[in-house]
Amino acid sequence: MLEPCASTFWSAVKDLRPDLHLSFNPWDRISEPSALRALLAEAGVADADILAEDGRQVLRSPEDWWTIVLGSGFRSVVDQMAPMRPSGTHGEFGVDRLSGCHFGRDQRHLRDSPET
User: How far apart are CA 75 and CA 46, in angstroms?
Assistant: First the structure.
């Protein structure tokens, strides 16, 4: 989910604050219908309707990715790094670290599921 930018984000975290780096994403446990079905069954939800949907989001600029970061669970990591960041800026998460992401007219997208 959220690739290729999520890998770039976690690489920056690993370089800057290894103590905050995660070797897995919590949502990986439920990224496949069978895994989500098993989790719901463990919680007592039987016969849940689960529909997998692939999606893409065009990223026009690094600001689009930054909006996703600040509106997601990644924000807690950024907040813990706040003392390292100049106020109001991306600080160490600047554009130069986003070379793995694709912005602009080439219409490459942020994937919310791996391509098959």
Answer: 33
Count the residues in the chain.
Answer: 116
Cβ partners under 8 Å of residue 33, min gap 6: 50, 51, 52
- Tell me how far CA of residue 7 lies from CA of 35, 39, 55, 87, 110, in angstroms: 22, 25, 18, 24, 11
Q: Quote the CA–CA distance of 40 and 5 in Å, as a whole number.
A: 29
Angstrom distance (rounded) from CA 40 to CA 54: 21
The rounded distance, in Å, linking the Cα atoms of 37 and 45 is 9
Whether the full predicted model's pTM is greater than 0.85, yes or no, is no
**Choice between 105 and 14, residue whose per-residue pLDDT is larger:** 14
CA distance 97 to 60: 16
- Considering 20-29, 39-48, 53-62, the range whose residues carry the highest mean pLDDT is 39-48
Instruction: Indicate the helix (H) or strand (E) that contains 58.
Output: strand 56-58
